[in-house]
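Action item from last week, closing it out:
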Amino acid sequence: MKTKAITFRLQEDVIKQIEEIASKKNISKTEVIRLAVSKLVDEEKSNTNAIQVIQEQNKQLQIALSTLNKITEEKERLIEEKEKRIQDLQKTIDVLQMQYRERNKTWWKFWKK
């Protein structure tokens, strides 16, 4: 791998941390920085992948929600139709009851005579 010399400023506590890690792992300070950068790159890739997975799940959830809304609307429409049918049947029952009472009254009138 090709290397290039660069100069940058770091806070003293960061430099101490790099030196501590380098001495504990018996590696160079450059290697510590390379590993840290590599870890950051991997985390960024992982975060990007996680975001993509979440976005795909969100799309799937939106599709499921849309489907559930359509099903709910259809069920509400069916309930309204059935309620109208029940009202029509109730009116028919009322008319039939009224007709029955009228016939019954005329029959009793005939019987009483």
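Closing note: The chain has a mean pLDDT of 91.
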